[in-house]
Amino acid sequence: MHTLFTRVFGLVQVLVLALGIGWAQAGEAEDQAALDRLFAQLRVASDAAAAHAIDQQIWMLWTSPSDPTLAGRMREVLAARGIGDLTGGIRLLDELVTDYPDYAEAWNQRATLYYMVGRYDDSIADCARVLALEPRHFGALSGRSLMYLQQGRRDLALKDMATAVAIHPYLSERQLFPELGEPATRI
Questions:
Q1: Is there a domain that residue 186 lies in?
Q2: Distance between CA atoms of 166 and 149, rounded to whole angstroms?
Q3: Cβ distance 143 to 130 under 8 Å?
Q4: Up-side HSE of residue 32: CA atoms within 13 Å toward CB?
């Protein structure tokens, strides 16, 4: 009887795990579809206010993943950042990128914190990882562009900013690059 109970209990655990993985994957697919729609809308936004409303939805999806465990850990990171605990945030993100190496926003948040503590080379490396995972990440592109600009590497800065504004035409950082012109307003 005990072995039958153990087998049944084990099968139930496997089923619950499989269903959980299936639900998480379904949530990820829905998030990806939502991101695709939002990026399409962002590219043709009629003005800065419309673009900002869309980019806020994108940031919400990036920072609030469907996986409940990952979402909880990300909330801890954002809380640490919010109270100015940059070292603690970096520590949490070190663990997060180890456990979830394909989660682009963990790399982006760590790049941001590295930037905030003056670790520009580490930040630039993490931006590269973000962009390998999510090439449309206008935050990583514009952030890396600003670091390149600070390092006197204007050619690389311009390249990243041009890519970023092709994705998000109303990024405020584009003003640092007059050669990019102003975004075209759409009617």
A1: no
A2: 19
A3: no
A4: 10
In a domain, 119, yes or no: yes
CA–CA dist 124, 96 (Å, integer)? 18
Structure tokens at 157: 């800065």
Token look-up 């993490």 returns: 126
Separation of alpha carbons 114 and 107, rounded Å: 10
Residue whose structure tokens are 């399409």:
40
Contact 168, 137 (CB under 8 A): no
Enumerate residues 6+ apart whose C-beta is below 8 A from 139: 59, 108
How far apart CA 177 and CA 98 sit, in angstroms, is 36
pLDDT tens per residue across span 131-182? 999 999 999 999 999 999 999 999 999 999 999 999 999 999 999 999 988 7
187 domain residue, yes or no: no
CATH of residue 55's domain is 1.25.40.10
Tell me: pLDDT of 129 over 50: yes
Domain count for the chain, please give it: 1
DSSP summary character for residue 72: H
| 187 neighbors 46 (Cβ within 8 angstroms) | yes
Structure tokens at 176: 């640092």
Question: What is the domain range of residue 85?
Answer: 2-180
